[in-house]
Amino acid sequence: MTEPLLTVRDLKKHYPIRKGVFNRQVGAARAVDGISFDIAEGETLGLVGESGCGKSTAASSIIHLEEPTSGEVVFNGNGREGATRNPDGSHPNDVTEFSDEELKEFRRGAQMVFQDPSSSFDPRMSVGNAVGELLKVHGMSDRHRRRAIVEDLLERVGLSASDFDRYPHEFSGGQKQRIALARALVLNPDLIIADEPVSALDVSIQAEILSLIDDLQDEFGLSLLFISHDMSVIRQICDRVAVMYLGEIVEIGPVEEIFTNPQHPYTEALLSSIPTPDPRASVGGIELKGTVPSPTNPPSGCRFHTRCHKVIQPDGVDVDQDDWRGLLNLRDKINTGEIDVEQVRENVAASGTEPTDSEVQAEIRREFDIGETIDDPELEETLTEAMNLLLDDNAEMAGEFLSDEVTTPCAQTEPSKTAHASDHESACLLHEDRASAEPNPADD
Ligand SMILES: Nc1ncnc2c1ncn2[C@@H]1O[C@H](COP(=O)(O)OP(=O)(O)OP(=O)(O)O)[C@@H](O)[C@H]1O
């Protein structure tokens, strides 16, 4: 088997949080928290997730714009192919251990393209010089040769050689992104990391740039790590995709497989958010509510459990799944003191006369998508009791009451990876249950 061009293993980037006059570290933002994947030669791997999932931090740690906290990034390009591990287990191609000289060499072979093409150019430098600058930095002193290389590249990205002497403000956003691609290609790299390269562009221009990236990849035999929050963009350009949530990869696999047979509820939710021209298709769609929690204090167990539509019910409980999600949300909001009963009372009163307690309770149920009765009498009783306490101004006890019974295994156990089809893995407790339920041929 040929070796991957890039191997990332258990990569972490934690930003220390400091406070006080002594600037003591009081915690850490675990922006990237142990991600692993490979990228083969000529392959495009997508990294997808909502804003704040850690995609950009992963990119800058891989390319060593930032020092990772731990983990390994093995880059087998730049003539470093075929290297084997040292007797002490370290790898000679581990970027995280590179010397300054090796890092300079690495930067020839691995380039980055950023989201905003406008801010990545010096307005006072002609685009030809901006593209050719890297050649100069890397020792090409012949000005004519540099110019010939850059003019050729400008043509290959769909501009013209005569654009060499023009300035960034003379170009549109899409054209600037073409120039950024020319600049990334000028040192003939093996790997390009593109961080949301089309999200700042109009949709019509996005398609042109994606198609250009696709063509350049074939022409230059590039490997790509393509970062996007947009699943439809990922589908157009990637061979495989890694889905990232709160610093972790929750699912990885071939694009077609992930789109037709997603396994992780987070992937399902991201896919469900793709706009479709058919209005009926969104019926029954999964709404991803709220935002990604802070990486300074990620949820225990499965990090997605606080937003998951498939969050598991404990043994002995079997209620409507929407009711279950609502109960967990209600429990959390009561525990964080975020339910303002007086405000709810006022809201209900606004639509008529002074509301009764049961009207206020009904409104709270509605806000949390909890049905009129839960089909588990014991749980219904617990909820009613908790609501009574809440309306009696005893939120603390209401929270405790609910917390005793409304619990999920997803908050207790960190899911491990489950393999599905070849090269397709996800990390969700639901799959672990299913895997253990499947008959093991060895038991026969
Ligand atoms: N220098 C920093 N110090 C502390 N926290 C940081 C730092 N940089 C990023 N973070 C946090 O790390 C998390 C991941 O950020 P990151 O920018 O990598 O996410 P992202 O998925 O790329 O999102 P976006 O698309 O919005 O950039 C966020 O919660 C962010 O606030």
UniProtKB/TrEMBL annotation:
<comment type="similarity">
    <text>Belongs to the ABC transporter superfamily.</text>
</comment>
<dbReference type="Pfam" id="PF00005">
    <property type="entry name" value="ABC_tran"/>
</dbReference>
<dbReference type="InterPro" id="IPR003593">
    <property type="entry name" value="AAA+_ATPase"/>
</dbReference>
<feature type="compositionally biased region" description="Basic and acidic residues">
    <location>
        <begin position="420"/>
        <end position="436"/>
    </location>
</feature>
<protein>
    <submittedName>
        <fullName>ATP-binding cassette domain-containing protein</fullName>
    </submittedName>
</protein>
<feature type="region of interest" description="Disordered">
    <location>
        <begin position="406"/>
        <end position="444"/>
    </location>
</feature>
<dbReference type="GO" id="GO:0055085">
    <property type="term" value="P:transmembrane transport"/>
</dbReference>
<dbReference type="GO" id="GO:0015833">
    <property type="term" value="P:peptide transport"/>
</dbReference>
<feature type="compositionally biased region" description="Polar residues">
    <location>
        <begin position="406"/>
        <end position="416"/>
    </location>
</feature>
<dbReference type="InterPro" id="IPR050319">
    <property type="entry name" value="ABC_transp_ATP-bind"/>
</dbReference>
<dbReference type="InterPro" id="IPR027417">
    <property type="entry name" value="P-loop_NTPase"/>
</dbReference>
<keyword id="KW-0067">ATP-binding</keyword>
<dbReference type="GO" id="GO:0005524">
    <property type="term" value="F:ATP binding"/>
</dbReference>
<dbReference type="InterPro" id="IPR017871">
    <property type="entry name" value="ABC_transporter-like_CS"/>
</dbReference>
<feature type="domain" description="ABC transporter">
    <location>
        <begin position="6"/>
        <end position="271"/>
    </location>
</feature>
<keyword id="KW-0813">Transport</keyword>
<keyword id="KW-0547">Nucleotide-binding</keyword>
<dbReference type="GO" id="GO:0016887">
    <property type="term" value="F:ATP hydrolysis activity"/>
</dbReference>
<dbReference type="InterPro" id="IPR003439">
    <property type="entry name" value="ABC_transporter-like_ATP-bd"/>
</dbReference>
<dbReference type="Pfam" id="PF08352">
    <property type="entry name" value="oligo_HPY"/>
</dbReference>
<dbReference type="InterPro" id="IPR013563">
    <property type="entry name" value="Oligopep_ABC_C"/>
</dbReference>
